[in-house]
Amino acid sequence: MTDSQIEPANKRPHAKYEHLISLAKRVVPAKTVVVHPCDESSLLGATEAAEAGIIMPILVGPPRKIVAAARQHGIDIKPFEIIEAPHSDGAAAVGVELIREGKGELLMKGSLHTDELMRAVTSSATGLRTARRLSHVFIMDVPTYKETLFITDAAINIFPDLDAKRDIVQNVIDLFTDIGLGTPRVALLSAVETVTSKIPSTIEAAALCKMADRGQITGGLLDGPLAFDNAIDPEAANIKGIKSEVAGRAQILVVPDLEAGNMLAKNLTFLTKADAAGIVLGARVPIVLTSRADSVRARMASCAVAVLYANARRHKAMTAG
To answer: What was the pLDDT predicted at 291?
Structure first.
């Protein structure tokens, strides 16, 4: 293979996700609180990951609805505990409380709106906030790119300021390293690769790089601002005369705002047939966000990444204790 990051779409289909899933099968399954799993998609996401030995689901929601959905779609949920909650809002509250009580290591979204779940998670009195800003990461298996591609934040922080971006970057670096992928190459994206006052995201990208130089961000190699092409393609970086360990070889793409990130992730999903797993970081536990549009492999990969991260946190806590 040449130095190019781009490779034929059919050369190694889904190899990146399969690697993550195989790693997750080697660690202790994580107790996973599944909030309001009342449809086929959310039940399959939980049961398939359980059958693979990755998670141990605890189903939270109206028992009659959960059982009815399982029967309708032929899904066996007999091995799993069901904890009663009256409706989706109530299930979110109960699920968060179970995490606070130490009865689960992961929180997983079922068939409720993301904002319902995140309302319970972010409650100042009873939620799961930490000192870190919450942020979302897409872990993407792009058939035409040889790296697993992490994109953040495309789902929670709409127009993050510099302090929020610092947490977004640190969250994704911690995830990348803790799941065993090494030291990440982090590209801070903008429309251009030069710093200009006309495009504020270029100034923030440069500031984040300086923050990394001064130890305010640790664990990754940062470069920016970089345009998308010279972040992922060595030839594009060479043409622009950009010399760094990150340019042309990025593993993490930090977008300037949610709109850019959402469009980037969806472009990759629909134009390159990429799979997009996703989790939320910065809370007391990783939060698995799945959707009805997710493939079986993407749902499994979301669980796998969250389990690997939870396992690393578990070992850190044991070491610290």
So the answer is: 75
The encoded tokens of residue 58 equal 């605890």
**Nearby residues of 55 by Cβ (< 8 Å), 6 or more positions away:** 29, 30, 31, 32, 46, 49, 106, 108, 303, 307
**Where are the domain boundaries for CATH 3.40.50.10950 in the chain?**
27-129
CA separation for the pair 130, 314 (Å, rounded): 17
- Tokens representing residue 182 in the block: 């090494």
Residue 270 has pLDDT above 50, yes or no: yes
Phi, psi of 33 (to 5 degrees): -85, 115
Residues 6+ apart with CB under 8 A from 318: none
Question: How far is Cα 199 from Cα 185, in angstroms, rounded to an integer?
Answer: 23
40 by Cβ neighbours in 10 Å (0-12 / 13-18 / 19+) ranks as: middle
Residue tagged 């640790």 (tokens): 218
Whether residue 300 contacts residue 276, with contact meaning beta carbons closer than 8 Å, is answered with: no
Residue 318 vs residues 55, 163, 252: alpha-carbon distances, Å = 20, 30, 29
Q: Please say whether the beta carbons of 284 and 107 come within 8 A.
A: no
Q: pLDDT of 312-321, one tens digit each? A: 988 887 777 6
Please name the fold of domain 27-129: Rossmann fold (3.40.50)
Q: With a threshold of 0.90, does the pTM exceed it?
A: yes
Query: Highest-confidence range of 41-45, 60-64, 110-114, by mean pLDDT?
Result: 60-64
CB-CB neighbours of 65 under 10 Å: 17
DSSP state of 54: S
**Tokens standing for residue 192:** 């251009």
* Cβ–Cβ < 8 Å for 230, 250: no
Query: Are the C-beta atoms of 148 and 20 separated by less than 8 Å?
Result: yes
Pick the CATH number of 130-282 from 3.40.718.10, 3.30.360.10, 3.40.50.720, 3.40.470.10: 3.40.718.10
